[in-house]
Amino acid sequence: xxxxxxxxxxxxxxxxxxxxxxxxxxxxxxxxxxxxxxxxxxxxxxxxxxxxxxxxxxxxxxxxxxxxxxxxxxxxxxxxxxxxxxxxxxxxxxxxxxxxxxxxxxxxxxxxxxxxxxxxxxxxxxxxxxxxxxxxxxxxxxxxxxxxxxxxxxxxxxxxxxxxxxxxxxxxxxxxxxxxxxxxxxxxxxxxxxxxxxxxxxxxxxxxxxxxxxxxxxxxxxxxxxxxxxxxxxxxxxxxxxxxxxxxxxxxxxxxxxxxxxxxxxxxxxxxxxxxxxxxxxxxxxxxxxxxxxxxxxxxxxxxxxxxxxxxxxxxxxxxxxxxxxxxxxxxxxxxxxxxxxxxxxxxxxxxxxxxxxxxxxxxxxxxxxxxxxxxxxxxxxxxxxxxxxxxxxxxxxxxxxxxxxxxxxxxxxxxxxxxxxxxxxxxxxxxxxxxxxxxxxxxxxxxxxxxxxxxxxxxxxxxxxxxxxxxx
Length: 473
Hints:
Elements: H1 3-6, H2 11-22, H3 25-35, H4 39-64, H5 72-80, H6 82-116, H7 124-143, H8 149-176, H9 187-190, H10 196-208, H11 212-216, H12 225-250, H13 265-277, H14 281-314, H15 322-325, H16 334-353, H17 358-373, H18 375-390, H19 403-425, H20 432-472
Helix pairs in contact: 2-12, 3-10, 4-10, 4-12, 4-18, 5-6, 5-18, 6-7, 6-14, 6-16, 6-17, 6-18, 6-20, 7-14, 7-16, 8-14, 10-17, 10-19, 13-14, 14-16, 17-19, 18-19
């Protein structure tokens, strides 16, 4: 395909795609619950030191792999080889398993807001049972084609952007009009306490600023090529960082931090705003709940099938059985999707055993999701480090600065991510058995299985060669 035919995405289109991939109002709620107003400066810092450099790293990998549309697998393979490429692609799917454990309870919570006007509080056990039923339904629907998914998600994401901007403007106007925030907005409140718990929550911040890999794959489709991509991604990063920061500063204007919940926090802040401005609270609750529920249910359907399809179609044939990777008439590897369902259920049940409330459950699963989500970017960063250290001679149209600058930047990122990953995997105050069996055990089992699976694949690939050698001797 000619380059001119591919350059079809304008600067505003890329800006919109970047915003949709990265920004989420729920991330503001989650981090406010954990570290309060200090999340505001941290969001902006994470955007500057992580999101923008990571986008540029991926832009360089895309430039190196011009003829490939495979994404993560191709990028890592070009720098570290097939085994590590498989591990990187595997971790993207693996992270998605933990993502479901935090997404499913939220879908239930926003469904209650949408249909009842308030959150129906469930026990951890009830949450797990209903989440299992919901995930089974989502797996069935996603494997049988969800044609309306794209339009629905597009509309609801637009509504969420409008809701976010309306909250910022109205809460900002209230503060300027003299209202006393539920939690005072002070420099002291926005100054983070640097400790082990803070490093653990920093993983949540980096997870919130993630999504770069899904945007940077379009670098060859941007009008103006790499130069336009670099300019727009920096502008987008600053805009998103500012939006996250401003949202975080104003999030406790009407509702104090201690009252917010992981499951329905978005509706809570709009309910508080509605009460202040004299709007019908129940109607606002239902509307925000409906938008959030529709958006999250659409996201659930999309993430139930899409990562499975991408992962099993991207990796070399022969690693998994033909029946596992076979596509149904809707183009979805249905058997793999149901295997995914069977894996997610224990991941839902295990943290339930150590949680007394739904809030405790959400804290555990979001913490593990954040830790696991740092693995895929870490693989890409290690691949990039090796690229600049040993393979910098490979031809590509774009580089993130000089060889020294590239090595220095990615080394700092690897250091930050390693500390954040460890602190999130071993959080302070967490149940030790949950940490051992869920945080550590989950990672060891899943990554160990991936390593063993690729070793088996290599042995099978080498058999014909060895048999040929034996026959000729």
